[in-house]
Amino acid sequence: MNLIAFVKTVDQVLAFMETAWRRYARMMGTRSLNVAYILVFVVLCSWLLLASLIQTPRIRVQQCRLLQSLNDKRTSSYSNDERLKLYENMTGELDKQGPLFLGDGKTSQSLKLSDLFSVINGKIVPVHKVANPPVRAVVLYLDPDAAHEIKQTIESILSRHFPKTGLWFQDPDLYHFSMHHASHHQNPVPATLEEINSEAAAVRQVAEKSLILEIELERVVLTPSGVLVGCWQVSKGTDPAVIREELRNALPRSPAKQLYNPVIFYTSFARILSAPLTARKDYSADAVLEILKGLVSQLNQNLCSKAAVKELWYVEELDLLALALKGRTRIRRFQLQSDPKG
Ligand SMILES: *[C@@H]1O[C@H](CO)[C@@H](O)[C@H](O)[C@H]1NC(C)=O
Asked: How far is the CA of 89 from the centre of ligand 1 (A)?
């Protein structure tokens, strides 16, 4: 119900009651008048309480861990259980390996952190290395509305805990899920322009067979190499595992060894490049790890997003990790399909 209309109605009722009571008090004397005022006071207080309850913004559900939708039969065809196991495993790796990025850690794609960033005038700047031949990646694209909200939350929680040069935020207009590589720097498959065009056409056909995904952020994980990744589950649409299989069939020249587990579904949000400000030099590695875990847990309490994935991209990365580091790219975007069943 419209709140303003509601308030007006209550006002009218109160006014009517007060007039009635005054009339009654005139007939019955002052003692009753006092009783009438107390009554009006009580009614007013209850009304104020009710109004404030209605106006209080609904508190956001803080934990996405147990997605209700995962329990119903409709979604049991998704690989969510398998993904959950992977995410549990990823969460445990930081404890197991420790924050390698505070040493001279390697990144997920065997590039050293010092290869990826440099500091220029007190600002962190990505280092772009030419990929020859360009990497050809197929990615799903996270809806930018959700991406911007996530980025803001992460920034507001992490920024004050790190020096300016200690954090790199991914561009929220490029949050993506790696699906498949037609060529990769560890396993290059050169292609002519013609071959590239036919790969793109094949990816378009996969997009034309796939439904828009509705997804939920299951958790945020900090990897031992310092990447803050969002791990997602699927509640509607075509499962990423199915899309990966379609892509493998559609792109037969691709490297047999792909980079990712076939069901995994994550996006990188940020990279942590230094120890938190609160970690003094004399802190033990374990103490630093505890601080980092505390921050990740804060993120998990505040980030709980539903989002949509509506596009499949065929991306030529002319620089290594160009999507992650804002390097040079050639992007072809293909729309996924709306579910005809609604
Ligand atoms: C994650 O999985 C890998 C490969 O199966 C295994 O070696 C590792 O111990 C697991 N990590 C954790 C923390 O469970």
From this structure: 6
Q: Which domain holds residue 8?
A: 3-67
The total number of structural domains that make up the chain = 2
pLDDT at 168: 93
CA proximity to 80, closest of 268, 230, 215: 215
Mutation choice for ligand 1 from 90, 93, 97, CB with most ligand atoms inside 8 A: 93
pTM confidence score = 0.77
Name which residue sits closest to atom 10 of ligand 1, judged by CA: 89
DSSP string across 70-96: HHSGGGTTSSHHHHHHHHHHHHHHHHH
Question: Do 48 and 186 belong to one domain?
Answer: no
pLDDT of residue 199: 98
Mean pLDDT for the stretch of residues 193-220: 97
Atom number of ligand 1 nearest to Cα 92: 13
More confident call, 83 vs 17: 83
Contacts of 238 (CB under 8 A, 6+ apart): 209, 210, 211, 213, 336
Residue with CA nearest ligand 1 atom 12 = 89
* C-alpha radius of gyration, the chain, whole number: 28
Are 153 and 186 in the same domain? yes
Domain boundary among 67, 89, 108: 67
